[in-house]
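name: query_chain
kind: protein
chains: 1
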Amino acid sequence: MFFENKLKNILVTGPLAVDKAVYSSHYDPQNTRIRSVLEGIQNYVSIPAKVDFSFGCEVVDEVWPEGKIILFPLTRDEKNGIDVACTKAKKSELISTVMGEDGQHCGESRSRTNLGLLGSQFQLLQVLKRDRQTNHSNSNQQKTIINWENQYIQAILEAWSPNVEGSNAISKTILGDYNPGGKLPITFPRSVGLLELNFSYKPSSQLGQPSSEPNGTGKTSVVGELYPFGYGLSYTQFEYQNLNIFPETGRTQQQVQVSIEAINAGKVKRDAVVQLYFNDLVSSVNVYQLQLSRFECITLDRGRD
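structure:
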């Protein structure tokens, strides 16, 4: 394994690390054998690495649903659970948090006033960030607001509802045996005030406020997406060069051919999702800012392909 030889102690924490009910919905096949993320990592990691577990906190706090709009002090049980996780984190080289939403608080007829982590999960994540290398597996069924996580957590793995093989995929990705190549099929906004921020949007929908001039109001607006449609990272780096467009100047309804050279500039083999977008600089109607024309998944060894 890519990382395991460097690890002696791994901590898995968070309520969804053991809650199997969140891994599938009532739309999925029933009576399937689902393995939790904790079980997946325990079964995947070999000696001498040790996998420890701490529940940390419940999905929601004791004052739910008022806790959605008011930040209440932690209860004694919540504080004790976070303290235990923090103590174990100090002894671990890798901390894997598994948090997000469960089926009782996300879905049809379960609207929310915010899209951040529920209950005291956010406080748990903040405490764990202080210790060693922390990665965060986000299990949810909708786009979420994860600005703080994006700023301070070393790695974020969007697991959605991971289903039967999800724990195996998460384990392999966390430990470096699988190099992720997926891209987002949705747009993640920076705040609920930006909803509905979907791909693709019109240019005027994301205008900011001027920061100067007589009518300037300063940089007070939060605009734009946190993660755009088509975004996704990998354990390797891809470079694109030698873009060719033929013909460079076309006519209405004329076919245009586009080619590009893709390079795996990293150290490991991986799939690259090459995406082609276009926009109209001049048009008779208000068009989308970007439109996806084509995409293709290709496997690239190190070097040129």
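note: The chain is about 15% helix and 25% strand.
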